[in-house]
Amino acid sequence: MMSLWHLIKSREGMAMLRIWAFSLGLLLCGAALAIPLDRKIFQLQHQTWTTKDGAPASIATIDQTDDGYLWLGTDAGLYRFDGAHFELYEPRQGKISQGLVYFIKAQPGVGLWVGWGIAGISLIRDGVITNYGVNDGVPEGSWWGFDFDPQGGVWAAGVRGLLHFDGKKWRQIGEQDGFTARKASAIFIDQQGTVGAFSEQGLFLKAAGSRVFAKPLGRTDVRQPPQLGADGRIYFLDESSIRIIDGLARYEQPDHAPIFKGPRGEVQSMLIDRSGSFWYSTHSGLRRTDPHHPDSPEPFDKKDGLTADIINCFFEDREGNIWLATRDGLDRFRQTDVNKVKPSLDSYQIDQVKLLAGSGTAMTMASSKFGGGWIAMEPDGAVQNTDWLKRHQALPTQSLTRGRDGTVLVAAADALYRIAANNSEERIAWPADMGPVHRVYTIAQDGDGAPWIAVVGNGVFQYKDGRWQRNADLPKEGKQTPMCILADSHGRLWFGYSDNTIALLENGKISLLTTAQGLDLGRVSVIHEADGQVIAGGERGLAVYRNQRFEAWKINAKLLINVAAIVHSSAGDLWINSTAGTVRIRSALASWRQGLPIAPSQIRVLDGVDGRVGVASLLGRFSLAEAGDGRIWIADNGGVSWIDPQQVLKVPMPPPVTIESLTAGNQYFRLPLDTTLAPNSRDIQLNYSSPVLGTPERMRFKYRLDGYDTEWHEAGARRQAFYTGVSPGRYHFRVIASNGGERWTEEGPGLHFTVTPAYYQTIWFKALLLGLAACLLWLAFQLRLRHNAKTFKAQLEARHGERERIARELHDTLLQGMHALILDVDNATNRLSLDEPGRKRFDHLLEQAEAVLAEGREQVLDLRGTDFHGSGTFALIQRDGASLIKETGLQFVCRELGKKRDLQPASGHEMYRIAMESITNAVKHAQAKNLAVTVRYTYFALHLEISDDGIGIPPEALAQGGTPGHFGLPGLYERAARLHADLHIASKPAFGTVVRLRVPAQLAYVRKSWLPSFMRRH
To answer: What sections of the protein cross the membrane (predicted)?
Structure first.
C-alpha cells in the first residue's frame, strides 16, 4: 500500500486531502447543516426527480462519498448524482456490473463499497473499481450491508453469511469465529466497537478486542440495521415498530415506549437526522416526528407532492438535506432561509396581504379577503386575535398603518377605523367622493394624528377638523394618487408618484422633488425612514435624501430593479423586496454614512433557491416587515413567510471540481487525469462538475486551458467546455466553482492532456520543410544571381567588344596613317643634309610623333585588354605597380590570399584599372613610405584592398567625391559602378588611405560547370 507521505506527494493524494478537508469541515459544522426540529415539513423546500428528469428507477440504497457525489444503487446498476445530472456510473479503470445493487456504503477516506445482487462486492476509489469475487474470498450471492470497525476493517453481511476485510483480503466468518448462522441479514457496529450481526438465529455480538462472537441473543431478525442518533442512542426498527434501545444486547427488551407501532410490515425504513428529527415510512407515505414527543407526527404523502407513498430508503447528506427513494422517484427535503407560514385557522388564505409589524413575535397581516380585517399570526401559524375576528367578521381591509403614537388605522370597505393603544375604536366615514373604484391604496398618520389616505384614481385626502379635505398644492391639486405616503419622525409628509416625482409637505408648504433634485427612480413605489434618513425606492433602485436633494445609492443595479418595500432592521441591516428577491444588505446605512461602497460580501439575495416562491410587485408597499423578535416577514403572491436573520444559512463551499470526461472525435476518456490524444484531435469537449446537492442552481464555474487560453472563461452554470482548433502540444485544463457567493473553490488537480502531432506537424517535418524552403530560396537566389551575372557579363563582353572594335579602328586607321606619315617625314628628313638648319627641327618632331604613336599603341592595348588573358590581373597589378614606384623609394607589397580563382576578363580589367589608379594617386599625392595591395579570394566575393600610410585625402575632397578638375576619385567610383561592385574609401589626415573593393563572386569569377567536358557548350 502507498505510504501516507507518498500519498500526500501524489496528485491523487493532494486531491484526496482536499476532499477530506472538505468533508471534515462539513462534519465539524454538522449542527448547522441539519434541519432544525422546529421546522415543519411544509416549511422545507421539497423537490422531486422521476425518470422524466433523468432519475433512475427502483432506487434501493443511497450514500455520499468524500467528493460530495450522491450515489444511488438501483436494479439496473449504480448511478451518480451531482445535484444537476444523473449518470450511470462508469469507472476510469476497471469493469463495473450493470446489475442489481443491494446496498452501498461510503467509507471515509477509502471509497464506496457496493454489495451486488449476484456480482459479489466492489470498491470504487478515485475512479478505479476493484471487484471481489470467489477467487478473492467473496462467495457468490447477494450482499445486503456493510459497516466499519474502529480499526478500519470492513464487515459485510449477505445471503452467504458474514465476511471481514482487513484491507488486504476477505475472510469468511464462520463457526470457528462463533458465527453459526447461514446468513447475515444486517451488520451494525456501535460506539464501543461491538460488532452486531443479525441473522435467522438472532443477534450475534462480538465485543471490541474479542476474537469470536458470543452465542446469539433473541430470535428477532431485521431487514435494516439499527441507527445511531446524534444523542448517542440506538434506534431500532423491526417489522412492526420503531423504538429506542439501551444497547445491542437489549434489542428485544422494551426499554422505551415505541416511537411508532403498527401492523406487521408497516414500516420499511427510517432515519434519525443530525438535529434529532425522526423520519420513517409507512404504507401511507412519510412521517416525521420528534422522538421525544412522537404522538403527533407530521404526515407527507403523494397528495402533498411525494413521488410515491412507498419509501425504499432514507439518507441525510452532509449539507443536511434529507433524501427519500420512493417506488417512483427521488425526493429531497431541504431547509431554506425563507420559511412559509400556514395559519392555524384553515379558513384564511394569506396571499397578497399587507404586513403591519408590532412589538411582539406575532405579525399583523390584512387583506380584503379576510373577514374581520386582519389577523395577528405567530411564526408557527398560531392566530392570536381570534376574539377580534369574531367581533368583526364583515370587515375586509384595504390598507392599514400604525402611527407613531401606536394608533392603528384600518381602511375597511365601509369606513376608516382608528384603533387606539387601549383598543378603543373610532369609526370615520369615507368622503362622499371616493372615485370610481372606491378603494384606499395607502394610508398614513401625520404628526398631529390626522389620517391621510390615497384613493385609487381619486388623489389624496386629509381628515382634519372632522371632515375630509384636499391639499390643492399637491400635484394636480391633490387629485393625483401617490404610490406611497410616509410620515417621518420630523413631522414631514412624503408622497411618491409614478412620474418620478416626490412631494414633500413640510411646515405647511409643498415642495416638489424631481430630476432637478437628483431623483431618477421612475415610479416611486416606496419611501422609508431609517434612523432619521429618508430612503426612496422605485423602478431604478434606491436614492437617499440629503441636503435638499436625492443621491442615487449605487449598490447593484441588477438587484434593485422594481424596489417594492424597504425595512431597516433593529440589527442595522437593510432589507429590500425587489424583482431579484429579498435582498439583505448588512450595515448598509453605516457604510453609506462613512462614504464606503457596499461590498459584495455585505449583500445576500434570498430568492427561489432559498424558499422565496413569490414575486415582488411595485404595488407591494407593505410586503416586508420586522417583528419584535427580529424576524423579517415577507408577503407576496406566494403567501407569507419569515426569515430569522440570526440563523441565515451560510453558503456551503463546493468541493474541488472533478473532470468527468474528455471527448475528442471518437476518443472518450472517463475521469481522466493525464491523457494523450491522437493526432488531429482539434475539437475537444470537457465535462466537469462540483457536486452541491442543496443549491446546484447557484453553481457557477470558471475554466481555463493553459497553453490555449490567456484568461479565465466565465461558464455560468454550464458544466461543459468546448475547444476547437487545438494544435499539438501539452495542455492543462483547470476549473473552479462557486456556490453563488464570492468565494471560489481551490483548484483540484485538473486535467493534463497532450495532443499528439501528425507527421506533418512534427518538428522534424517542419524542419524538413523549412530546409526545403531554404534550399528553394537559395536556388532561386542563385538563379537570380546567375541571371544577373549573365546579363552583366553580356554587358561587359559587349562593352569589351566595342573597345576591341575601337582599338582595331584606331590601329587600322589612325595609328597606321600616323605610322605612314612618320615614315614619309623620316624619309624626307633623311634627304636633308645634316647641317641643314631645319634638320634638327624635323628630328624633334619625329621624336614627338613616335611618342604619340607609342602612347596610342598603349591605349589600343588597354582597350583590347589582351594582357589580362595571359598574365592575370594580380600579376599585372604587381608588375605595373612595381614599375610605378621604382624611382620613388616606396616599400611596395603585393599579397594574394585564399584559393586563387580565374577572373572574368572584363571584371579583371576594371579591377586592374581601379588598382592602378589608386596606386598612381598614392605615388603622386600621398607622400607615403609604404604601399600594400591585397587580393583576397572568398566563396561569395573577390576583395581588393590598396592601403598606404601617407598624408591621406582631404576630408572635403573625400566628402565631395573628388577635387574639381581632377577625375581620379570619380573614375574609381564610376568603374566600381560599372562593375556592380562595392567601393569604400577610408582616409584620415596623417593616417593614410585605404581603398576597398568588393566584387560579387558571380561577377568576378569564371563559373565552373559541373557538367562533363564533352557536354559543355563552347
So the answer is: 763-781
Strand 674-677 and strand 751-755: the pairing is parallel
What CATH code is assigned to 31-335?
Answer: 2.130.10.10
Between the CA of residue 786 and those of 633, 792, 815, 896, what are the distances in Å?
Answer: 95, 9, 40, 26
List phi, psi (to 5°) of 1015: -95, -10
Whether the Cβ atoms of residue 947 and residue 994 lie closer than 8 Å to each other? yes
Q: Do 655 and 691 touch, CB atoms closer than 8 A?
A: yes
Q: Which three cell numbers stand for residue 907?
A: 571584371
Cell of 589: 446605512
Beta bridge partners of 633: 625, 642
> What's the 3-state SS for 185-236?
CEEEECCCCCEEEEECCEEEEECCCCCCCCCCECCCCCCCCCEECCCCCEEE
Give the confidence band of 429 by pLDDT, cuts at 50, 70, 90.
very high
Do 354-647 and 658-757 come out as alike in CATH topology? no
Handedness of CA 107, 110, 111, 113 (dihedral sign): negative
* CA distances in angstroms from 194 to 156, 170, 187, 247, 249, listed in the order given: 15, 20, 11, 10, 10
Residue 622: pLDDT over 90: no
Spell out a b/e string for 573-606, using b for 16 or more CB atoms within 10 Å of the CB, else e.
Answer: bbbbbbbbbbbbbbbbbebbeeeeebeeebbbbb
Instruction: Quote the CA–CA distance of 318 and 312 in Å, as a whole number.
Output: 20
pLDDT computed for residue 858 by the predictor: 61
- CB burial of 319-340 (b: ≥16 within 10 Å; e: otherwise) equals bbbbbbbbebbbbbbbbbbbbb
pLDDT of residue 1016: 46
pLDDT reported for residue 343? 85
Is 634 in a helix, a strand, or coil? strand
Take residue 874 and report the three cell numbers written for it.
594580380
Instruction: Please check whether residue 267 is in contact with residue 302, taking contact to mean a CB–CB distance below 8 angstroms.
Output: no
Taking only the tens place, the pLDDT of each residue in 11-36 is 444 444 444 444 444 443 444 478 99
* HSE-up of residue 221 (Cα within 13 Å, Cβ side): 10
Could you tell me the pLDDT band of residue 973, with boundaries at 50, 70 and 90? confident
In CATH terms, the superfamily for domain 354-647 is: YVTN repeat-like/Quinoprotein amine dehydrogenase (2.130.10.10)
pLDDT of residue 801: 67
* Gyration radius of the chain over CA positions: 53
Gap between the Cα atoms of 474 and 127, Å rounded:
73
CA of residue 308 relative to chain centroid, distance: 40
Dihedrals phi, psi of 71, to nearest 5 degrees: -110, 140
CB atoms within 10 A of CB 963: 16
The CA distance from 587 to 632, in Å, is 16
Q: Which residue is associated with the grid cell 447593484?
A: 556
d(CA 162, CA 165) in angstroms, rounded, equals: 10
Name the CATH code of domain 658-757 (choices 3.30.565.10, 2.40.50.100, 3.40.47.10, 2.60.40.10): 2.60.40.10
Domain boundaries, the chain: 1-30, 31-335, 354-647, 658-757, 762-864, 869-1018
First to last CA, the chain: 87
| pLDDT tens per residue, range 244-280 | 999 999 999 988 999 999 888 888 899 999 999 999 9
Answer whether 64's CB lies under 8 Å from 83's CB: no
Cell numbers 583576397 correspond to what residue? 936
Is 2 exposed, middle or buried, given 0-12, 13-18 or 19+ CB atoms closer than 10 A? exposed
Burial environment of residue 67 by CB neighbours within 10 A (0 to 12, 13 to 18, 19 or more): buried
Return the CATH class of domain 869-1018: alpha beta
Residues in contact with 746: Cβ distance below 8 Å, sequence separation at least 6, in sequence order: 18, 656, 736
